[in-house]
Amino acid sequence: MHDHGSEGHNRSHDHSHGHGHSHGLGGHSHVSLPAEGMTLILGGAVVATFALVGVELVAGYAGHSIALVSDALHNLTDVPTLVLSWFATRWAKKPPTPQKTYGYHRAGILAAFVNAMLLSLVSVALIYESVVRLRSPVEVKTDLMLWVSVFALLINGGITFAVTGGRRDLNVRSIWVHNLGDALSNLAIIAGAITIHYTGQSWVDPVIGMAIGAMVFWSGIGILRESTHILLEGMPRSIDLESVARAMLRIPGVQEVHDVHIWTLGTDLNALSCHICIPDMHMEDSAKILAQVHEILEREFKITHTTIQFERAGLAADSNLYMPEPVQRSVS
Asked: pTM for this one?
C-alpha cells in the first residue's frame, strides 16, 4: 500500500489474492485448473483415439465402409484437439514469470478457442459429407460397421465420461463437447447399420449424420463465442458492473467508485481494478476499508484478484471514466 501526497491524491495500491494463492520469488501461483489428474486423462485419450483411428481405417477398408473411414478421419481431427488441451492443462499450472506475470491461465482459453474453430469446421465437413452420402448411397458390410461403431462408442463415451468432472474449464468443456459429438456419431452409425441391415433404407445414416453435425456446430460456435469474449477482456457474463459498484458503495467511507474494469484471467479466476474515492483518514482506517472491499467482492461476486486505487474524495479524477459516469453514494 502506497501513500502519495502529490497532486492532492491519497492513493493506495493493493493486490488481493483469494484462497489457494501462494507467493514466491517469481510472483504468485494460482490453483491449477482443471483438477490434478486431468493431464493424465487427456494423455490417455490421445493414445486411445490413435488406436481407434487405426481400427476404423482398417475395418473401413476391409468392409468397404465409407462411413467408418469418414468416422476415422473425424476421430483423427480429435488428436490435435486433445494434444492442444493436454499442453494447455500443463501450461496452466506453470507459475508466473517476469514476462508472464499473470501466469499461463489463458492457455486453456486459447486452446478452447482453437478447438472450437476445429470443431465448427469439422461439423460443416460432416454435414457436407452427409448430404453427399444421401445423394449417393453406399453399400456397406453392416455387421462390421456395427461392431466397430460399438468399439468406437466405448472409446469416445469413456473419454466423455472421464472429462465430465472438468467441464467448468472452458478448455476441457471443448473436449467434452467434441467427444460427446463423436459418441453420438457412433450411435448414429450403429442405428444406421441396424436400420440398413433390416430395412435396406440407406438414407437413414446420412440424415442422422446431418442432425449430429448441426448439433456439434452449434456447440462449437458457443464455445468459440465464449472464448473470444474472454480473450477480448470482456466482462464475466455472471457479473453486472453496476451491481459491483453499488456493493462497494455500501461500505462506510466509500463515497464514489469509477474506472471499474472486470475481466477473466482463467476458469473461475476473475479480476477487478477500480478507483475508490474516500475522505481524508489515517492509513490504518483506509486499510480497513480496503479489507472490506476485498471481502465483499470475493463473497458476492467471486472476484479474487483485485487492484484498488484510493483517491481523495472531492477532487476531480485524473483519468477517463469507464462506467461512463462515476457511481456515487446517494445523498439522503
From this structure: 0.65
